[in-house]
Amino acid sequence: xxxxxxxxxxxxxxxxxxxxxxxxxxxxxxxxxxxxxxxxxxxxxxxxxxxxxxxxxxxxxxxxxxxxxxxxxxxxxxxxxx
Amino acid sequence: xxxxxxxxxxxxxxxxxxxxxxxxxxxxxxxxxxxxxxxxxxxxxxxxxxxxxxxxxxxxxxxxxxxxxxxxxxxxxxxxxxxxxxxxxxxxxxxxxxxxxxxxxxxxxxxxxxxxxxxxxxxxxxxxxxxxxxxxxxxxxxxxxxxxxxxx
Lengths: 82, 152
Fold this sequence. Notes:
The complex is a heterodimer. By secondary structure, chain A is an alpha+beta fold. Chain A is 20% helix and 28% strand. Chain A has helices spanning 11-15, 31-41; strands at 2-7, 19-23, 53-56, 59-61, 72-76. Chain A has a 5-stranded mixed sheet. In chain A, a hairpin with a 2-residue loop joins strand 3 (53-56) and strand 4 (59-61). Chain A is globular, with a radius of gyration of 12 Å. The termini of chain A are far apart. Mean pLDDT of chain B is 93; it is low at 145-152. In chain B, helix 2 runs antiparallel to helix 3. Chain B has one domain (7-130): Molybdopterin biosynthesis MoaE subunit (Aldehyde Oxidoreductase, domain 3, Alpha-Beta Complex), CATH 3.90.1170.40. In chain B, strands 3, 4, 6, 8 and 9 form a 5-stranded antiparallel sheet that branches. Chain B has a 4-stranded mixed sheet with strand order 1-5-7-2, sandwiched between helices. Chain B is built from 3 helices and 9 strands. Chain B has helices at 14-20, 54-72, 102-119; strands at 7-8, 28-35, 39-40, 43-52, 76-82, 84-87, 91-99, 122-128, 133-135. Chain A binds chain B through residues 6, 8-10, 13, 51-53, 55, 57-62, 74, 76-82, and chain B through 34, 50-53, 55-59, 81, 92-93, 113, 116-124, 135-143, 146-147.
């Protein structure tokens, strides 16, 4: 069981990659639980965590959203388009 | 829902958008163009790079077009954002609104660009004349505003 995690904007600099495969410890692991694991691997993410939004596929999801094997989770920092 | 493209790496084509939105019932046309500026926060900017979450930005901007038309009663609204490397003076975003009268056209165009800046998953990276590079700090996305237009 694994998901794909995509990093956008400044997060790509923080983690050094645009995307990573990530194992799911349990099915129904929430976004929040996954963030705890990501923060251990990429300590630089911690400072950005409070202002992140999340999308699974093309749908914005809350931190309590359960993740399923095969999902693509996008970590979205504050936006600056226009 | 619109099937048109809302994000492109090629230079934005205002003439094409004007052709696409031609409407004999409209007496007002308002165009907003966001243009790459040569300075930010006192620093000289040489160029920009925009990246985006393609699937989400297509969905968000298509919804924003429909929302803007419904909210202001305007007949035509198109929004296209650029991605990739842009030089000073290039258009980063175009908003085209056509309506029967000018009042709602101005209001709708302002709403569309103001809301885009809060909802579109796009990130601006600035390259400065002094050689430094920085992501511009932005607006946190909120889950409340997507697909539920009653809460904003």
